[in-house]
Specification:
There is one protein chain. The protein is mainly alpha-helical. 37% of the residues lie in helices and 9% in strands.
């Protein structure tokens, strides 16, 4: 008889290979430990904890880390291959969707590992009290992170905190509200057992700041604005972390150990790798251009005067990438960019040859980014998460993937205070620090970047929502934002549009208060590439489906509405 997915994952996940992901502890694998006598000593506990961290490095799509791929299920990015993430993004997903099933399985697998450690660490001999408390706190942080993703993706889910009897298949879903309360309580309980930071280049282990940051995120997502603001403030006040001076370095090898990064997924060649540079890079850069930004993402970046492109006198439709927020160039590859030391152009008729600057002297080569059938479908590529150092081995990347960074905490704090109506200078300061960093100036130099000065709640709500879209693009936050703001049915309905290969848009689209472009006024809109047509059922698509196998084997499990 088949067993419930959850129970199989939690049981088997607790005895699978426990090897290092973060490179901080012993990297020697311990294969197939016995669940009956594990853990015996400190070394085994460390290996077990490493296994819990490693399980966070799961892929939503093959070799694609979940934070990088999650945004293709939203309006700002698109996956061109026929896969579960594509159908989740266009509204054609069915209840046995492969991506939704994979996320469910991997998150519960991680929960199984943490439960096994928390429930069995008492077997180990000779542990100091400090080591014991910190290890348990780290495992509970990982478990809370897994559950935070589960409840935002699926709503209420079974809450399991102990190693389960494999013969007990039936578990009901705990309502989302109860799960959220429990997650917040867990993070509050463990925060003081964790260090504020670790000495040296350590970004892959839980800290007090990461616990507070996750608490702030969960609270914000669930409109608990007081808790979100307080947790974010406490995290900021602890110090140590600071914004990295160069935004683009946060997403390549140069910024792996930045003091802005609070928690990241750790990759290491020979242990666990990913293929970011392969699936994001250009054809000339030896990539496959699989996940690409949409035109609406590109048009959401302001001009350097802080105004949207439909309102700024600095926007020139004939030169649409000039006078724009620096994060556009640092996040997205557009026609005329240099990417992996190749000139990037998509109009093969106008640019049959492009420059290759990887050789001296530079020479022109065939423009496969304009001719290849599977080159970018939208006219653009993601620069975020790519690094030229991976070009010749692009499916064997070990760049770390940011999960929590200081800029997000600033934005959480600002949004929570705005929604509470507590708009003071501290709100403007954190938002201006983020903006100023994009321009690589100090936030007190208000003449060198478009500083925010308004304290009007409606205006600030509009600004902070646009800042989240821009600052956190392609980092896995957008799905949760469009859900909690109640705008998913607006942005995920109708045509998903790419640019025009042969010419720019004749006019700027109209940008609304949620930074959603409307192209109905653009006179050459009919030339824009319609990548796909999206549908969104507000009674269904605000949650992903529970895997069918879970429903078939767990008689207490209920499917989400209309799936």
């Amino acid at each position: 008889m088949k067993k419930s997915i959850i129970l199989q994952i939690i049981f088997l996940g607790s005895i699978l290979v426990l090897s290092s992901c973060d490179g901080l502890l012993n990297k020697n694998p311990l294969e197939y430990p016995s669940s009956e006598d594990y853990y015996k000593n400190k070394t085994e506990v460390e290996l077990g904890l490493n296994g819990c961290y490693k399980q966070l490095c799961w892929d939503l799509k093959s070799e694609r880390p979940w934070p990088v791929v999650l945004d293709v299920t939203t309006d700002i990015s698109w996956n061109r291959s026929s896969h579960g993430v594509q159908t989740l993004g266009n509204g054609s997903a069915v209840s046995n969707n492969s991506a939704a099933t994979a996320a469910w399985k991997q998150l519960y697998k991680g929960i199984g590992r943490t439960n096994f450690l928390v429930n069995n660490i008492d077997r180990a001999k000779g542990l100091s009290e400090d080591f014991y408390k910190q290890t348990v706190a780290e495992a509970r942080f990982i478990r809370a992170l897994n559950y935070s993703l589960l409840v935002e993706l699926y709503g209420g889910v079974p809450k399991i905190t102990v190693v389960q009897d494999i013969n007990n298949m039936n578990m009901a879903r705990t309502p989302k509200e109860e799960m959220v309360t429990w997650i917040l309580e867990e993070l509050e309980e463990i925060k003081d057992d964790l260090p504020v930071y670790y000495e040296g280049n350590v970004r892959g282990r839980a800290t007090k700041v990461s616990a507070l940051a996750l608490k702030a995120r969960v609270a914000l997502y669930n409109k608990k604005y007081r808790e979100a603001a307080d947790a974010a403030k406490e995290a900021m006040d602890l110090g140590f972390y600071e914004l990295h001076p160069k935004y683009e370095e946060l997403f390549n090898y140069d910024g792996e150990y930045s003091k802005e990064i609070i928690f990241s997924l750790q990759y290491l060649k020979g242990v666990i790798v990913h293929g970011n540079s392969n699936f994001l890079a250009s054809r000339l850069g030896k990539g496959v251009s699989n996940e690409v930004p949409t035109q609406s993402m590109v048009d959401s970046y302001e001009c350097i005067d802080g105004k949207t492109i439909d309102k700024s006198p600095l926007f020139d439709p004939k030169n649409p990438y000039e006078n724009r927020d620096p994060r556009l160039e640092k996040s997205i590859v557009y026609p005329g960019s240099i990417f992996y030391n190749y000139e990037f152009q998509v109009d093969a008729d106008k640019y049959p040859k492009v420059w290759n600057y990887n050789v001296v002297p530079p020479k022109q080569v065939d423009n496969t980014d304009g001719t290849n059938t599977y080159a970018t479908f939208t006219t653009y590529l993601w620069r975020k998460w790519t690094d030229i150092r991976d070009m010749n081995d692009d499916q064997n990347c070990d760049g770390d993937i940011v999960v929590i960074r200081l800029a997000e905490i600033y934005l959480i704090y600002a949004e929570a205070k705005i929604e509470l109506g507590e708009i003071d200078q501290s709100v403007l300061d954190v938002m201006n620090k983020i903006r100023a960093r994009a321009y690589e100036v100090n936030y007190t130099e208000t003449t060198k970047y478009p500083a925010i000065t308004t304290k009007d709640q409606k205006e600030l709500r509009e600004i902070v929502r646009r800042e989240r879209k821009i600052e956190l693009a392609n980092e896995g936050h957008r799905l949760f934002d469009i859900r909690r703001w109640g705008i998913a049915e607006k942005v995920m309905t109708g045509e998903r549009l790419g640019g025009i290969k042969t010419e720019p848009l004749a006019e700027a689209p109209i940008i609304d208060e949620n930074s959603i472009p409307d192209y109905s006024n653009v006179s050459n809109k009919n030339k824009m590439r319609v990548v796909e047509t999206m549908v969104f059922d507000a009674k269904k698509h605000y949650l992903w489906p529970i895997p069918l196998a879970e429903l078939e084997t767990n008689e207490l499990m209920e499917q989400n509405p209309n799936w």
